[in-house]
Design a protein that fits this description.
Number of strands: 12
Order of helices and strands: EHEEHEEHEEEEEEE
Low-confidence stretches: 161-170
Strand content: 25-35%
CATH class of the largest domain: Alpha Beta
Structural class: alpha/beta
Length: 175
C-alpha cells in the first residue's frame, strides 16, 4: 500500500492554478497517491481558463468554488480547503502558483522518513520559477525539518537541536 498525500490549495483568482495542477500530477512518481482539495475563489467575470475547465483529469480532485468578492482572506480560504481532507497519510499545503521537480512526492516522503520522527514537520520557503516551468536551481531554498514536542496546552514547539536548514532539498518552487 502506498502512502497518500492530500494536496491542499487555496486559490484566489490565480490564472496559474491549472498549470500548477498539471505540473504536480505530471511530475509525481505516483499520481494515484495524490488527492487534491482546492478552494477556488473566482469572480464572475474571470476567464473560464482560470477555472475547472482547464484542470487536469484526475479522479481525486475536489474543488469548492467560492465568489472572490465574498472572500475572507488567505487563512480563511486555507481552512475551507482543509475541510476536504479525508484522512490521507500526509498533507501538503501549497500556493496555487507552484512547480515541482520530477518525483517530488517520493522526495518529500523520503525526506520525512530521514527525520526518523513520526511527528516531523517539513517546512520550506521554495525557490522561484519562471513561466512556464523553469525552476531556479542556482541556490538551495530555505528548508527546515523538525521534530516537535506537544505541550500540555496542545501547542507544538520544535524539539531542541532538531531544526536544520540542511535537512533536505526542495521538491517545489513558487513564482
Amino acid at each position: 500500500m502506498i502512502s497518500t498525500i492530500f494536496v491542499q490549495i487555496a486559490a484566489y483568482r490565480d490564472p496559474d492554478l491549472p498549470a500548477t495542477l498539471h505540473n504536480l500530477i505530471e511530475r509525481a512518481a505516483k499520481p494515484e497517491r495524490l488527492r487534491f482539495g482546492i478552494y477556488l475563489q473566482l469572480a464572475a467575470d474571470d476567464p473560464p481558463h482560470w477555472g475547472t475547465s482547464a484542470f487536469p483529469d484526475h479522479p481525486q480532485l475536489e474543488v469548492i468554488r467560492f465568489d472572490a468578492a465574498e472572500s475572507r482572506g488567505a487563512c480563511w480560504a486555507r481552512r475551507q480547503a482543509q475541510g476536504v481532507y479525508g484522512g490521507e497519510d500526509f498533507l501538503l499545503q501549497i500556493d496555487s502558483h507552484m512547480r515541482a521537480v520530477e518525483h517530488w512526492d517520493e522526495l518529500l516522503l523520503k525526506t520525512w522518513k530521514e527525520c526518523s520522527d513520526a511527528r516531523a514537520v517539513l517546512s520550506i520557503y521554495p525557490n522561484g520559477f519562471q513561466q512556464p516551468c523553469r525552476l531556479q536551481t542556482s541556490t538551495l531554498p530555505v528548508t527546515a525539518a523538525a521534530g516537535f514536542n506537544f505541550q500540555k496546552n496542545n501547542l507544538i514547539a520544535p524539539s531542541p537541536g532538531r531544526l536544520s536548514p540542511e535537512a533536505s532539498c526542495s521538491a517545489l518552487a513558487q513564482s
